[in-house]
């Protein structure tokens, strides 16, 4: 299948017919990749993380914004071409392409430092082709410089799972030395947990995956139970990473007075009815998390380097991207799934 018409050719995966992952919504084929335009860089992909958002796009929970879109927004690559007006990167540099791809820069949200809420924001692997391919074009202004000395596969999950987890942690209003509950313990959660632990928090992991519970304990969590279990102590804050609306009242009920629950996913199944007295009274807060700002990304990447964050990676060859998404859907992935060149 042809993926475009330009001089450079690569192989990539595209979402052709959104549907259950077993129906084969991803199709692999040759595609054309244009030269980078003004303000853009062309990356040869060294690794691309597999995010649950990619699964939502493939299965149609997240409606495609364009036909035959290449997913993937945790891109680590080498710059192979630079467009006009790019001064921040040169050919040969290592750079990261992330979920947030563009904003208008002039709306009231952008001017207030809330570019994640920009009504005209665009996203890698949704509005434009992403990193489930050999080559990817990304806007230089929204790319991150990355160190040469680290394995590409371990860097990739930092670019969305890490950044979004970091924003979710800040949205959870965790007090200093506080008690944090994390519901779902995949790519984002295992990175956010390390930030919280490094900052002196007590972390309780709540997840249906036995392997994820083992990982949480290995990273330093005080406890690890099933997603519907009651944590061993009241929580000051909680983050819901699992896209399961049924867990919202469960997590709210686990909060202490004035606690905050941050819901981190871009897609969530329906939330059951909430009981005001049980779930929200005593000034408990329920917050959503929407994308991230570039400042979030810069802060998190610097922090991750400073604390020596450990990334648990399950690598897959690029030719098995469909298998990686299937394993993610079935909770068979430890930490973060990452595609690497065959």
From TrEMBL:
CDD domains: CAD2. Keywords: Metal-binding, Oxidoreductase, Zinc. It catalyses: a primary alcohol + NAD(+) = an aldehyde + NADH + H(+); a secondary alcohol + NAD(+) = a ketone + NADH + H(+). Its cofactor is Zn(2+). The keyword Transmembrane helix does not apply. Its EC number is 1.1.1.1. InterPro entries: ADH-like_C, ADH-like_N, ADH_Zn_CS, ADH_Zn_typ-2, ER, GroES-like_sf, NAD(P)-bd_dom_sf. It is an enzyme of class 1 (oxidoreductase). One of its GO terms (molecular function) is oxidoreductase activity. Residues 19-339 form the Enoyl reductase (ER) domain. Pfam families: ADH_N, ADH_zinc_N. PROSITE patterns: ADH_ZINC (PS00059). Belongs to the zinc-containing alcohol dehydrogenase family. NCBIfam families: adh_fam_2. This is alcohol dehydrogenase.
């Amino acid at each position: 299948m042809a993926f475009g018409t330009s001089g450079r050719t690569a192989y990539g995966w595209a979402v052709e017919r959104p549907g259950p992952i077993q129906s084969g919504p991803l199709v692999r084929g040759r595609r054309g990749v244009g030269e980078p335009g003004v303000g853009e860089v062309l990356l040869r992909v060294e690794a691309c993380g597999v995010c649950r958002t990619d699964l939502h796009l493939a299965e149609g929970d997240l409606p495609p914004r364009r036909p035959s879109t290449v997913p993937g927004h945790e891109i680590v690559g080498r710059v192979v071409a630079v467009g006009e007006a790019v001064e921040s990167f040169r050919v040969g540099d290592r750079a990261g392409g992330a979920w947030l791809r563009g904003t208008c820069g002039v709306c009231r949200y952008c001017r207030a430092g809330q570019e994640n809420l920009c009504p005209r924001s665009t996203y890698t692997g949704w509005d434009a082709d992403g990193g489930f391919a050999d080559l990817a074009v990304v806007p230089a202004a929204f790319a991150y410089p990355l160190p040469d000395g680290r394995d590409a596969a371990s860097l990739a999950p930092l670019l969305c799972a890490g950044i979004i987890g970091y924003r979710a942690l800040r949205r959870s209003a965790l007090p200093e030395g506080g008690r944090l509950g994390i519901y779902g313990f995949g790519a984002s959660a295992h990175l956010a947990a390390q930030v919280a632990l490094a900052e002196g928090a007590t972390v309780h992991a709540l997840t249906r995956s036995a392997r994820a519970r083992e990982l949480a304990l290995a990273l330093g969590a005080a406890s690890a139970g099933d997603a519907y279990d009651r944590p061993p102590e009241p929580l000051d804050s909680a983050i819901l990473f699992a896209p399961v609306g049924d867990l919202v009242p469960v997590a709210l009920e686990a909060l202490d007075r004035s606690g905050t629950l941050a819901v981190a996913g871009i897609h969530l199944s329906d939330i059951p009815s909430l009981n005001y007295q049980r779930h929200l009274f005593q000034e408990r807060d329920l917050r959503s998390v929407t994308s991230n700002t570039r400042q979030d990304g810069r802060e998190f990447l610097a922090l991750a380097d400073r604390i020596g964050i450990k990334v648990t990676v399950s690598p897959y060859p690029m030719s098995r991207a469909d298998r990686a998404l299937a394993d993610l859907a079935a909770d068979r992935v430890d930490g973060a799934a990452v595609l690497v060149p065959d």
